Amino acid sequence: MHYRTIRTALLVASGLGLCTTGARAQSSVTLYGLLDSGVTYASKVAGTNGTGARIGVDSGNLQQSRWGMRGTEDLGGGMKAMFILEGGITLDNGASAQGGLPLGRTSVVGLSGNFGTVQLGRRKDYIDEIATWYASVYNFGTFINGVHDNNLDRVGGNRSNNSVRYDTPNWGGFTANVTYAFGETAGSMAAGQSFGFGANYTAGGFGLGFGYWQSGLGTGTAATNTSSDAGAASAAGCNPTFGNAGNVCVRTWMVGTSYRFDKTRVYFSWSRTLQPLARFAGTSAPFATTLTSAASSGAFAAAGSNNNATNVFDLGVNYWVLPNLELIGAVLQSRYAFVGAGAQGRLTQFNAGVDYFLSKRTDLYAYVANLRASNMYSPGIIGGAPGRNATQTAVTAGIRHTF
Fold this sequence. Notes:
One of its GO terms (molecular function) is porin activity. The chain is mainly beta.
């Protein structure tokens, strides 16, 4: 028999053996993914040549492109083993997201049963579920991260390493969660630890839920924070030079609700984020207490070095014109307190869009958003921050496909 024929036969036999073993154990593995890309225009984007318009192909306008594998094994008695491995992709250039981590979105293993589900590894916390159900991130994706305190309130999903997550079973529409992430610092349990909890209730077309999360400083120098919370790196108030390892540098909670009747769904969420260690990170103090074009960009910025408190209000509506055609609108406002400043910063954003489903797995979308800043720097909608103390409009049209 030819070598290639023998090799092929062995591979087929091996595969059949694996399938047979899996069948006996009643296990399953699923490969899945999501691809989202569109052409996007954004006005007043700050760049090396000043402030100007930008147009290009962007990945993950509504949902981050990703691929993954998930699997379960029936262990008997209602108990199952489970795993999820998932990596993000920037579809426009083929690179890995999450800083180049091949499985940076989710990498967990766990057990589920009548007691609920326990997962160990890296993944998002419960605020991500609350935001998905009750905030406009589900409809407008990355378009709303800037106005949501540059994602410091975790509306767009942040992840914690070294975490243990527990979710209760569904008790008549009520579910709850608690998550703890180890800092893994020798000699200190507090250094770099993070934890959160939350709950949700649904009945018919009504839903109501909340989530809480806090992150502690890890070890490091300058702006490097080795916290278990990967999202803490985006918080200027989590600079280790501002405090000591173990100090809480971010606290955030979100409350949301929604109601669906006939062809209409309305939703609302409120989040509040605190940076207890926030202060001015410039080379001199005191700094200007009023936003000017000469002020340091580290101050007067969403999730910036002197932004110690933020409230975000998010109100939206979905209306199904046809079973496969959806009109969407939302208005968001975030209010910022700055250390040493008398005036409160404010961001206001208006969103509108249409989503047309060609099938259950493929849809075409088009969205427009306008963001306005007052007494602070605008974080921009997409494609980079706009010019100082400016407005920005962004438009996108794209396609999303799941498999």
